[in-house]
Amino acid sequence: MAVLEIPIGDVVLEADLAIPDSPRGVVLFVHGSGSGRHSPRNRYVAGELQAAGLITVLADLLTSEEGRADARTAQLRFDIRLLAERVIGLTDWLADYGATAALGLGYFGASTGAAAALIGAGARPHRVKAIVSRGGRPDLAGESLHLVRQPTLLIVGGYDEVVIGLNRAAHKELAGEARLEIVPGAGHLFEEPGALEKVARLACDWFTRHGQMSGQ
């Protein structure tokens, strides 16, 4: 695994890049709610995607300094426009990076990061091929939901009743193919036995079925 320093606007973001043998696509993880590239849940899912032949990019959307400030105030994690701008910047950077330039790109968004991923997908319709949201807040993408035409999978835990409602409403607003998958017996963080494994299986299937073999 390589650690990259990626210039985005006036900041430099760190990202972990893992490239399996004969890769057939790329998945950018879009973290939210105070999480980052060291999230054990996302790293587990990333490992399963790598086993399926997909390059994974786990990037911090905040700098170290911003992350420390957010830990005190919890404000930046809800600055969806800022997060989305950085997702778009990372998307453009990956389009020019040697190992990822010729491959289709998918987004795996979690919590508030799912909203930033959806905004990014709407802004880069020809680059982004598919989106998966885990316990996401797609409602925070607002009117950008109408711009998302890529296949979108919304995964929510069966115990996460408020978020289920928000995802059901967002599901109706998405312009392209969309599916809502509720994992029985799972909470918001999918910490229950077998829950995260189910998320990983669903994500692998979605990304490998929806255009990851082709590039721009």
**Overall morphology:** globular
Unreliable residue stretches: none
Please give the alpha-carbon distance between the first and last residues: 25 Å
Taking all Cα atoms into account, the compactness measure Rg is: 16 Å
Assign the CATH topology: Rossmann fold
Strand content: 15-25%
- The SSE order reads EEEHEHHEHEEHEH
Largest sheet: 8 strands, mixed
CATH superfamily: Alpha/Beta hydrolase fold, catalytic domain
Structural class: alpha/beta
**What number is the mean pLDDT?**
92
Structure summary, number of beta strands: 8
Number of helices: 6
> What's the structural domain tally?
1
**Sequence of strands across the biggest β-sheet:** 1-2-4-3-5-6-7-8
Please name the CATH architecture.
3-Layer(aba) Sandwich
Helix content range of the residues, please? Answer: 25-40%
What can you see in these coordinates?
37% of the residues lie in helices and 23% in strands. It is an alpha/beta fold. It has a single domain, classed as Rossmann fold. The protein has an 8-stranded mixed sheet with strand order 1-2-4-3-5-6-7-8, sandwiched between helices. The two termini are 25 Å apart. The model has no long low-confidence stretch (mean pLDDT 92).
